[in-house]
Amino acid sequence: MTTPFSTADEQDTAGDRPKADRPEADRHDVAVIGAGPAGLSAAMVLGRQQRRVALVDSGRARNAPAREMHMVLSRDGFPPSEYRALATAELDAYDHIDKISGTVTTITGSVGEFVLRLDDDREIQASRILLATGMTDHLIDLPGLAERWGRGVYHCAYCHGFESRGRTIGVVALRAADAVFARYLADRFSDDVALYRLDGVEIDAKMLALAQAGDVRIVDGHVTGIEGEEPTLRLLMADGTTHEREVIFHRPDARQSSPLGADLGCDIDPDWDSILVDAQHRTGVDGVYAAGDATQLRDLPNPVGFVATSAGQGQTAAIWIETELFTQNLG
Ligand SMILES: Cc1cc2nc3c(=O)[nH]c(=O)nc-3n(C[C@H](O)[C@H](O)[C@H](O)COP(=O)(O)OP(=O)(O)OC[C@H]3O[C@@H](n4cnc5c(N)ncnc54)[C@H](O)[C@@H]3O)c2cc1C
Q: Per-residue pLDDT for 176 more than 50?
């Protein structure tokens, strides 16, 4: 667990702000919950517009286990923790942003007068809410998996496929659709992709044939554990054999990191467990916006969760929040 903010450094910095927008001293214009790429980006936009922002974070960055991140312009291959630290430090330039360490446990009230309660009983009042709370990957209890997660065992062909090119790849399937994922990896990155199953995971003949048609090798039996380090990882099989692979891909189930979206009455996609938002990142609950991995645009078939897309969504959401806050004063 990482803690981006060392102290609860709430301050009243309303004095040098546009008078019409100045909230009462103990209130914030916007509470941004979650300081990953989505929340940090939103906070910067709103801080630059001199809105008083409460940025609350519980220090559980999704990609914290990863050694490096990719597809982030000017930071390709950068450690995610350093990226967060840099982005967090940049917010110090905007003294209307109160960075608060803690977990928001409940949100009551309604638009214009939300009340957030933290796990240590602190209270924050805010006019608007941005949920940037992310998703949590629920790893199965497979010996050796958790300690190699993001460090030899990867879940995403965009984030780590390129670094796996030309290597021997093992895909540890959790569901039938992982057969298609294995075929994708074989199509893009490697001539040696093998599909492994976990105990109890059934993949029907049609899906297996689809993988085989893309030169994916189907391995009989089931995996009981992982040993070794990248690039000499070993998959332990129930029959006592071991299979060496240079890199392993495995896609765990991901679920909302926080129940706040559901608690507030936001629509949640039943298949992906994502908060459904419109193009302005409104959830449908008045005054509640959402951005980042936790969300899915209503028109899209599935969520898209990356560092840069989350930062972009946070920025978009913040701009629409700012628009709403300003136009409400126009009369
Ligand atoms: C192993 C791994 C490797 C990855 N590699 C890449 C990569 O190379 N490139 C890439 O683009 N993407 C990568 N990703 C995806 C990337 O991590 C996410 O897309 C990105 O972090 C999403 O940003 P976010 O701001 O939506 O959520 P997060 O980064 O998950 O941040 C959400 C924050 O909200 C906080 N929070 C949650 N609930 C509460 C609450 N109730 N109160 C207060 N705070 C709360 C959490 O503590 C957390 O800090 C990777 C993911 C994993 C798991």
A: yes
Q: What is the pLDDT at residue 18?
A: 54
CA distance 272 to 100: 29
| Interatomic CA distance for residues 101 and 36, integer angstroms | 13
Average pLDDT over residues 279-298: 97
- Which one of 257, 258, 263 would you pick to mutate in the ligand 1 pocket, going by the greatest count of ligand atoms within 8 A of its CB? 257
Mean pLDDT over 254-258 rounds to: 98
Residue 119 to residue 58: CA distance in whole angstroms: 10
Residue 19 scores a pLDDT above 70 = no
Centre of ligand 1 from the C-alpha of residue 60, in Å? 8
CA 197 to ligand 1 center in whole angstroms: 27
Backbone angles phi and psi of 85, in degrees to 5:
-65, -40
CATH superfamily of 140-249: FAD/NAD(P)-binding domain (3.50.50.60)
Strands 216-229 and 193-198: parallel
Separation of 134 CA from ligand 1 center, angstroms? 5
Residue ranges per structural domain of the chain: 14-136+253-327, 140-249
3-state SS, residue 102: coil
* pLDDT of amino acid 331: 73
pLDDT digits (tens, 9 = 90+) for 216-242: 999 999 999 999 999 999 999 999 999
Cβ–ligand 1 distance for 130 under 6 Å, the answer: no
CA distances from 212 to 171, 215, 324 (A): 13, 5, 53
- Between the CA of 79 and the centroid of ligand 1 the distance, in Å, is 13
What ipTM describes this predicted complex? 0.99
pLDDT of residue 56: 98
- For 290-309, give one letter per residue: b (16+ CB within 10 A) or e: bbbbbbbbeeeeebebbbeb
Can you name the CATH fold of 14-136+253-327? FAD/NAD(P)-binding domain (3.50.50)
